[in-house]
């Protein structure tokens, strides 16, 4: 079997080689429209273009050999019969003697008084013996053709490298600015198809493996793009504009590369101090969803500002602190909140509202949603990796809440044990505070001012739908999450289709509202408080381990339920607005 495959490969390679040798360079480089639409690019890669520079001299030498004057004729045996050279073509029959006599006669006419003996004997003019040029003659005759081909090949190599560099830069920008993970490969495949680059892609979280293939020489160039995935709504929209302009031939690749490099190196939209304050304001506004009271809002603002200081200022500067930041923050906040909530036996501050609101902005809602969307899109590798990480991350948060609340319980035997708030504010205050939360969240994620009104509108509509459907489907909350996600997905995709905007940038702030609201409705975060209460009240001789384990894993389970409902709703919205997908470019939505 291997011998047959090798023989077929050699026959095919020889046929393709002879075919390319018999065609002119212009025909070899031209690509028909049918070939351009095919996934296999017949133009070849860099290595193929380099091989052509070695092929051209031999081809031109063969042409020179065939076009040179033949001496003799070939008989049937293949041997050449030499013919007798003409007398006037004999190089040895020179005119040296005649030339010498002419020189002497001219000198004698010019000086008639000179004698014959006084005339100098003219030097004999020696000629270089003739010989037949072989290799050097062919090289010199093909030099002019080769120089032109070399310039053309250099231009083709530069064009191939430029297209590959654009795909790599676009991939890096998409990773940095928060493009949906389950659509990254689709974006890059669409770009490569229109740029006529034969390539393959494999995405794992925070890493894209790119393979640039050359099917004519059976070689591959590998590129690995590694970036920590973040969210920057303004730069994501700018990246989408560059992506569309390249696909529609509005700008050249030179300009696109320059704009991408400037976009990656440009500073963020808002300064660090403003985003730190926005963390505190956003935490204070979302506290209404966790049944807080107005007296709790100043304390929640302080805790949220401390969270923002650690997230924006400290984590980027210290890798060691970034590893333990989430667990440390939840432990400290739970400890402080339980201490404040124990004043006047819980009559002054609400322990559970302060704890849940202060960590709402580090909940892995978007992370779990991306994993659910990837698994739903059959992206098994990144979806599986991300869902496992999201579950462990949720357990870290639950662990921090449990440790902080339990430690204060051991310090103060009379600590407050209530996991709910007394006399909470009216839940309809959420219609005022939630739009403010979305506004502050857009500042945190570096959105432009002109993007914010639509984001606030879509997120508020989604919250209203989720608010009423969660009351209607109190026994089946994933249905309420799906309906809320379907509403925001429908509005965002309609904006993308009719106003040519970016649906993903509009959807992300709406998702930030859906996840904390869903966790507040399901009471998932209070599981850590219940665990702390059970640990403080447990009898060492009669402990119920199964009950404690159930409480600990409830946060991760509720996160997965919320994300499944959101992913189903968003997918249905995409199906309604784009039943057949987009014709030219990929779908920029969740």
UniProtKB/TrEMBL annotation:
<feature type="compositionally biased region" description="Basic residues">
    <location>
        <begin position="125"/>
        <end position="135"/>
    </location>
</feature>
<dbReference type="Pfam" id="PF06738">
    <property type="entry name" value="ThrE"/>
</dbReference>
<dbReference type="Pfam" id="PF12821">
    <property type="entry name" value="ThrE_2"/>
</dbReference>
<feature type="region of interest" description="Disordered">
    <location>
        <begin position="1"/>
        <end position="96"/>
    </location>
</feature>
<feature type="transmembrane region" description="Helical">
    <location>
        <begin position="452"/>
        <end position="470"/>
    </location>
</feature>
<feature type="transmembrane region" description="Helical">
    <location>
        <begin position="387"/>
        <end position="408"/>
    </location>
</feature>
<feature type="compositionally biased region" description="Polar residues">
    <location>
        <begin position="22"/>
        <end position="33"/>
    </location>
</feature>
<keyword id="KW-1133">Transmembrane helix</keyword>
<feature type="transmembrane region" description="Helical">
    <location>
        <begin position="297"/>
        <end position="314"/>
    </location>
</feature>
<protein>
    <recommendedName>
        <fullName>DUF1212-domain-containing protein</fullName>
    </recommendedName>
</protein>
<dbReference type="GO" id="GO:0022857">
    <property type="term" value="F:transmembrane transporter activity"/>
</dbReference>
<feature type="domain" description="Threonine/serine exporter-like N-terminal">
    <location>
        <begin position="165"/>
        <end position="407"/>
    </location>
</feature>
<feature type="region of interest" description="Disordered">
    <location>
        <begin position="108"/>
        <end position="141"/>
    </location>
</feature>
<feature type="transmembrane region" description="Helical">
    <location>
        <begin position="551"/>
        <end position="577"/>
    </location>
</feature>
<feature type="transmembrane region" description="Helical">
    <location>
        <begin position="476"/>
        <end position="495"/>
    </location>
</feature>
<feature type="compositionally biased region" description="Polar residues">
    <location>
        <begin position="69"/>
        <end position="82"/>
    </location>
</feature>
<keyword id="KW-0812">Transmembrane</keyword>
<feature type="transmembrane region" description="Helical">
    <location>
        <begin position="507"/>
        <end position="531"/>
    </location>
</feature>
<feature type="transmembrane region" description="Helical">
    <location>
        <begin position="353"/>
        <end position="375"/>
    </location>
</feature>
<dbReference type="InterPro" id="IPR024528">
    <property type="entry name" value="ThrE_2"/>
</dbReference>
<feature type="domain" description="Threonine/Serine exporter ThrE">
    <location>
        <begin position="432"/>
        <end position="575"/>
    </location>
</feature>
<feature type="compositionally biased region" description="Low complexity">
    <location>
        <begin position="58"/>
        <end position="68"/>
    </location>
</feature>
<comment type="similarity">
    <text>Belongs to the ThrE exporter (TC 2.A.79) family.</text>
</comment>
<dbReference type="InterPro" id="IPR010619">
    <property type="entry name" value="ThrE-like_N"/>
</dbReference>
<feature type="transmembrane region" description="Helical">
    <location>
        <begin position="321"/>
        <end position="341"/>
    </location>
</feature>
<dbReference type="InterPro" id="IPR051361">
    <property type="entry name" value="ThrE/Ser_Exporter"/>
</dbReference>
<feature type="transmembrane region" description="Helical">
    <location>
        <begin position="428"/>
        <end position="445"/>
    </location>
</feature>
<keyword id="KW-0472">Membrane</keyword>
<dbReference type="GO" id="GO:0016020">
    <property type="term" value="C:membrane"/>
</dbReference>
């Amino acid at each position: 079997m291997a011998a047959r495959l090798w023989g077929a490969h050699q026959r095919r390679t020889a046929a393709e080689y002879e075919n390319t040798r018999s065609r002119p360079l212009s025909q070899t480089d031209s690509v028909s429209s049918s070939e351009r639409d095919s996934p296999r690019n017949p133009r070849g890669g860099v290595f193929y273009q380099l091989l052509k520079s070695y092929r051209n001299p031999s081809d031109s030498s063969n042409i020179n050999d065939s076009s040179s004057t033949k001496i003799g004729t070939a008989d049937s045996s293949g041997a050449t019969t030499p013919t007798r050279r003409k007398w006037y073509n004999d190089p040895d029959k020179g005119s040296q003697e005649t030339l010498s006599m002419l020189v002497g006669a001219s000198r004698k006419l010019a000086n008639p008084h000179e004698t014959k003996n006084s005339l100098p004997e003219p030097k004999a003019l020696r000629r270089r013996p003739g010989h037949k040029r072989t290799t050097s003659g062919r090289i010199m005759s093909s030099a002019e053709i080769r120089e032109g081909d070399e310039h053309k090949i250099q231009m083709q190599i530069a064009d191939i490298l430029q297209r590959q560099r654009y795909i790599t830069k676009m991939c890096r920008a998409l990773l940095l600015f928060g493009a949906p993970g389950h659509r990254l490969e689709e974006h890059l495949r669409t770009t490569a198809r229109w740029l006529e680059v034969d390539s393959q892609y494999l995405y794992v979280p925070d890493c894209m493996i790119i393979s640039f293939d050359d099917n004519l020489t059976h070689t591959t160039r590998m590129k690995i793009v590694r970036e920590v995935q973040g969210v920057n709504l303004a730069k994501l929209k700018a990246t989408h504009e560059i992506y569309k302009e390249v696909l529609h031939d509005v700008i050249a690749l030179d300009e696109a590369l320059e704009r991408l490099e400037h976009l990656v190196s440009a500073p963020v939209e808002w300064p660090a101090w403003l985003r730190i304050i926005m963390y505190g304001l956003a935490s204070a506004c979302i506290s209404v969803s966790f049944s807080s009271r107005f007296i709790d809002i100043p304390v929640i603002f302080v805790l949220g500002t401390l969270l923002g200081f650690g997230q924006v200022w400290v984590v980027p500067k210290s890798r060691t602190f970034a590893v333990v930041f989430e667990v440390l923050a939840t432990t400290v906040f739970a400890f402080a909140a339980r201490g404040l909530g124990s004043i006047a036996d819980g009559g002054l501050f609400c322990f559970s509202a302060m704890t849940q609101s202060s960590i709402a902005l580090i909940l892995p809602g978007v992370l779990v949603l991306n994993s659910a969307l990837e698994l739903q899109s059959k992206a098994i590798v990144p979806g599986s990796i991300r869902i496992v990480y999201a579950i462990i991350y949720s357990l870290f948060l639950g662990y921090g809440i449990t440790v902080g609340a339990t430690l204060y319980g051991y310090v103060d035997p009379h600590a407050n044990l209530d996991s709910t708030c007394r006399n909470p504010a009216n839940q309809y205050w959420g219609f005022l505070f939630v739009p403010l939360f979305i506004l502050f969240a857009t500042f945190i994620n570096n959105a432009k001012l002109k993007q914010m009104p639509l984001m606030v509108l879509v997120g508020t509509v989604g919250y209203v739908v989720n608010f009423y459907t969660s009351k209607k489907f109190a026994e089946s909350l994933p249905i309420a999450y799906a309906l809320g996600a379907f509403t925001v997905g429908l509005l965002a995709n309609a904006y993308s289709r009719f106003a040519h905007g970016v649906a993903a940038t509009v959807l992300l702030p709406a998702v930030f509202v859906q996840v904390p609201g869903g966790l507040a409705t399901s009471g998932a975060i209070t599981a850590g408080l219940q665990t702390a209460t059970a640990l403080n009240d447990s009898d060492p001789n009669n402990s119920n381990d199964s009950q404690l384990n159930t409480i600990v894993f409830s946060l991760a389970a509720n996160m997965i339920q919320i994300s499944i409902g959101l992913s189903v709703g968003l997918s249905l919205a995409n199906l309604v607005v784009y039943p057949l997908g987009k014709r030219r470019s990929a779908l920029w939505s969740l």
